[in-house]
Design brief:
By secondary structure, this protein is an alpha/beta fold. The chain has two domains: 164 residues, 3-Layer(aba) Sandwich (Ribosomal Protein L4, Chain: A); 41 residues, no CATH class. The protein contains seven helices and six strands, in the order ββαααβαβαβαβα. Strands 2-1-3-6-4-5 form a six-stranded mixed beta sheet. Strand 1 and strand 2 form a beta hairpin. Helix 2 packs across helix 3 and helix 4 crosses helix 5.
């Protein structure tokens, strides 16, 4: 177990808590983290890029000029790729970029990323977080008190509309449901803000060996099939 200070929204110490070593002091596998990150970025690609080949170009099919006597090379169509307005040779076609990665490897990558953050002192535990109404100014003050000018990922145990709306207009802080924790957001922010109830959610799927696939949402916010 790793012992860490617990603070309130103003940055004042209110106690301490223990982080499970299996999650926050796991063996760091940087190659695995890289593979998980590449997979997530690849899965976000739509793959809808498309160029037209010479058979798809809407130009005349007539021969450009006579075969002999012009001094020019022989050409049978203005749709050829060498002509302006012609088709594209070997251009991109729609394709699926998605990659597969076993569940155990994905979760091991998350443990590695959390362990890196914990070792660097970038994990901040909050006793709780909540707001009576959406207030961007209040959220900005909370961020300054907790992380200063650093970027921060704020994990939430469940939907909290007031907190989410308060952080929406701040570029340096992002809210995310703890159940949708992913490698890109972990590595893309300097500090990780974790309320105690969100920590329980993280433990529920990273500290247990056997969990059904359908219990764990993927990075895009949809249930894993």
């Amino acid at each position: 177990m790793m012992k860490i200070t617990v603070v309130d929204m103003t940055g004042n110490e209110v106690g301490s808590a223990e982080l499970p070593a299996s999650i926050f002091d796991a063996k760091i596998n940087r190659d695995l983290m890289h593979q998980a990150l590449v997979r997530q970025l690849a899965n976000k690609r739509l793959g809808t890029h498309k160029t037209k080949g010479r058979s798809e170009i809407a130009r005349t099919g007539a021969k450009a000029y006579r075969q002999k006597g012009t001094g020019n090379a022989r050409h049978g169509s203005r749709r050829a790729p060498i002509f302006v307005g012609g088709g594209v040779a070997h251009g991109p076609k729609p394709r699926d970029y998605s990659q597969k990665m076993p569940r155990k490897m994905r979760r091991a990558a998350l443990r590695s990323a959390l362990s890196v953050k914990a070792q660097a002192g970038d994990i901040i535990l909050l006793d709780s977080i909540g707001m009576d109404a959406p207030k961007t100014k209040e959220m900005a003050a909370t961020q300054r008190a907790l992380v200063g000018d650093s970027t921060a990922l704020l994990l939430l145990a469940e939907r909290n509309e007031n907190v989410e709306k308060s952080a929406r207009n701040l570029q340096s802080i992002k809210t995310l449901r703890a159940g949708y924790l992913n490698i890109r957001d972990l590595l893309g922010h300097n500090k990780i803000l974790i309320p105690l109830d969100a920590l329980d959610v993280i433990k529920s799927f990273l500290d247990i060996v056997e969990v059904r696939d359908e219990d764990m949402p993927d990075e895009n916010g949809t249930e894993v099939a």
